[in-house]
Amino acid sequence: AAETMRAGVVLRNLVHSVSQPNITRAPAQADELVTESVRIAIEEGVFDYPILFDCPADLPAVQVTHLPVVNVLLTLLHNRAQAMHAAHITNGGLHVSTALSADGSEVRVSVRDQGPGISADLQAEVFQPFITTKLHGLGMGLTISRALIEANGGKLWHTPNDGPGATFHFTLPVLG
What is the Cα–Cα distance from 147 to 158, expressed in whole angstroms? Predict the structure, then answer.
């Protein structure tokens, strides 16, 4: 119970700190955010899964707090790799892509895996605090990630793949 209360306080403080109007948001290119995140993920090791990315350099700049967005991407990459590893998938990989929304107001970043997907009973709860499928997970990574993306003016959600796995998407507002 004490750990739950402590985690709640940490989460509330984090969301409050990144939601402050004086937090410096700066222009960034989505392809550069992805490249940096993929480089770090590879250095940290993601169970040796290959990470492919399709991120056009000609997308408009987004207005973000740099480090939190990189951390969200790292969380998604690590979570998806861990899901594939836990399911004993040895020939899968990760794919990161970026695209401009139809109305041109947002850039969407997607992280797709070839893992087991998200079970039907967790579909609605995956972003709730303390929901985890990991043996040693706290269940806070996606909750914090969603708060960080929302603090940057975006949204974070997931969809099942047509084949194996799941895709996590988030949007970031275009500079302007």
Answer: 15
Q: Yes or no: say if 83 and 113 are a contact pair by the CB < 8 Å rule.
A: yes
Phi, psi torsion values for 49, nearest 5 degrees = -75, 140
Model pLDDT for residues 33-50, shown as the tens digit of each residue: 999 999 999 998 878 899
Distances (CA, A) of 59 to 32, 53, 62, 63, 148: 11, 15, 9, 13, 22
Q: How far apart are CA 153 and CA 21, in angstroms?
A: 12
Q: Which amino acid appears at position 156 of this protein?
A: L
94-100 and 106-113 strand pairing: antiparallel
Q: What is the pTM of this model?
A: 0.85
Pairing of strands 94-100, 51-54: parallel
